Amino acid sequence: MFVSFQRVFTLSEKSWSGSCLQYKWQKTVGNYLAVAGPDNFVKIFDRHGQKVNELNLPGNCVSLDWDKDGDILAVLAEKSSSVYLWDANVNKTSQLDSGMKDQMSFLLWSKTGPLLAVGTSKGNLLIYNQQTSRKIPVLGKHTKKITCGCWSSQNLLALGSEDRSITISNHEGDTIRQTSVRADPADVQFSVMKTDERSSPGESTVSVALGKKTLFLFNLNDPDNPIELAFQQRYGNIISYRWYGDGYIMIGFSHGYFVVISTHIREIGQELFQAHNHKDSLTSIAISQSLNKAASTCWPVIHDLTDLKEMYAIVTLDEETKGLDQMCWTDDGQLLAVSSQQGSLHVFLTKLPILGDSSGTRIAYLTSLLEVTVDNQVEGESPVAIAVEVEPSFIAVGPYHVAVGMNNRAWFYALGDGGVERVKDTEYLGTVASMCLNCDYAAALFEGKVQLHVIDGDEQVVQEDRQTKLFPEPDQKYRILSHALTSEFLYYGTDTGLIQCFYFEDWQSVNEYRHTVGVRKVFPDPNGTRLVFIDEKSDSFLYSPLYFLQVNDSIFEIPDFSPAIKGVLWENWFSNKGVFVAYEEDKVYTYAFHKDTIQGSKVILVGATKLPFSHKPLLLHNGELTCQTQSGKINSVVLNTHSFLNNPHSDTSKDKLQSLLQQAVMLKRYFHAALLVYSWLLDAWGELGRACLHHMEVELAIRVYRMMGNVGMVMSLEDIKGIEDQNLLAGHLAMFCNDYNRAQDLYLTSSYPMAALEMRRDLQHWDSALQLAKRLDPDEIPFISKEYAIQLEFVGDYTNALAHYEKGITGNNKVSVCMFLSGRSGSYVYSYG
Predict the structure, then answer these.
(1) Which parts of the sequence belong to the IFT80/172/WDR35 TPR domain (predicted)?
(2) Cβ atoms of 471 and 492 closer than 8 Å
(3) Could you say which of 40, 748, 756, 820 has the lowest number of CB atoms within 10 Å?
(4) Within 10 A of 614 (CB to CB), how many other CB atoms are there?
């Protein structure tokens, strides 16, 4: 199945008709595309196809290039000795007088600095420093026209000329290496060959296509032993080549072939991969390192560099009948420009920023550069597409609104039955890092502060003093690192470890927790009663404020928490509260918070699920994860931990059924657990019953043990099911599970600690019973001692029995108690009272 790329725009002007175009994307940011046709103009378009400016040249464009930061576009024109410079920041054009008398033929900016190299048709060179305006003319660098060149990351300049020589110069223009070649050089590139020992860091290999037939590799550290690679004649001429990965080269040939070779000395000369995707011809290849994709054309075919045998995508352009020409990717891999031999240029979206948010079961996500889609598949609502004013860097969605924005500005849209309506736009005091919405308020995080404000003041009845608030207060010296909104609360975490809870109804902070280190991220559940936070050590905890129940704050460390976690989503299914997932790049982990168990509250890891490539989770509902992909679509992933929701087949193994049962129990899905047992695992009723006792599900446990026919357990559970004291109830259940030590601890913290003594006495745990009697009811010691003595006498431990009988004497015991001791010298009678 091929991926389809969305076409963003097409450029086609009458003056370009029938001609091939010369064009380059702005480096780094890719906001502009400079295009030169045969009409003596260089036209500059933004990434949405709108023309920003144009440069009127005295002749056709010879060469153009952007500087390393994408700030300056440099252009050479026929019949001119000037270099035309367009500043993208101020949208103005200037001219640089080269001082050269001969026609300029080549132009290239440095990869690492503000240096511009300009070559001429007579072999002269100019190096211009944009920062200092210094010009270094180098006459006679070559004897004929300079046709190609490349800067290295160490600021070395390699040039190729029609005099069939290659020169390597430093940034001052001094020649440090020179070599002759046996054919006209083209497409000079710097890279690193694969060697067993890399003694010299940096780009030390110059590669050149010679006469369109061979590839020449010149190692600066071994200049006397260059390598020239020839290829099969049936491939045709070398059209283009690109380095990628660890010393690999992809080469495209005119007869439609492209091959991959390695430059490792033991593999050199061997083809690692060969494809004949284009039956007639191949005109260009392009590689996006950020996408890890390669494109080749006569008709664009996209391959994944990790698996070249499989085609990733095919771009179809039915209107282009004469074939395509060149291709060029933005540095970030988002946009691919493809030009045709008819003079048109098409731009495709190959990677969309993964921006999205969720509120309840509603999600909002970026579907095109200027389009956000709002969807609620759980409620069966139809998707709504919103055309937005800017290409957003953040998206937020609430119950009734969507917000998009970039830098320090946000636009708000109201979602209603009548469609989408733009409500307002707001400017903030700094660049917004993230935003959250609820019914009435928006909260924007910028520069360590959170601004809370009403979304639509005209329609909401909000008191004037509750329109807006800035956190923290002026006297509070901390930076806010993360924040989140629920329907009633604003939560935020700070660099000092403070987690603050602001209550809208009281318009004040009502709860705070001080952690030992800074809090990077906070993720409250939909009700705001529980919150997962990640600290600066990448440890994670579950926090239960519960201030409204007047219960102390509760903190639970989340086990096996990966330091690579990017976010947390809470389950939105109404019957499964307390379940959440934590996701990283390629895996998602399911956790469950068990609030009521005989072992106390705790968080457990249920299991993990592998995420498909480039999927960002947005919503969790009933074990199904809704994810956004980089193609602007959503995809559902069913968690492995919720496999029990799918009915097992008759051939499902017993081990698998047991695993499904354990999943259902860990996620507190007792109905599904009982269904599994009833349908497939009749011998597992006992296991389910014990799980119900462990999780203090008394009513369900009664039904389970009634199914088992365990009358005694049913009657015992009926006796305790009305107990409201959680510790006392948990103590009884722990006792039923034979966990007597835990039961004793729970009894002792309950409203009726004597239950611990009664349990030990009933179990005939006399030593423990005596210890408890000393603490709880010393009057019981004689009676327990007497019963203990009887047991000791029965087993023949007469000495200890005598001691405990003596402890059993009470002041009002007037009854004669006899103990017959069978000794070696006869029988003895002891009388008390």
Answers:
(1) 685-775
(2) yes
(3) 820
(4) 15
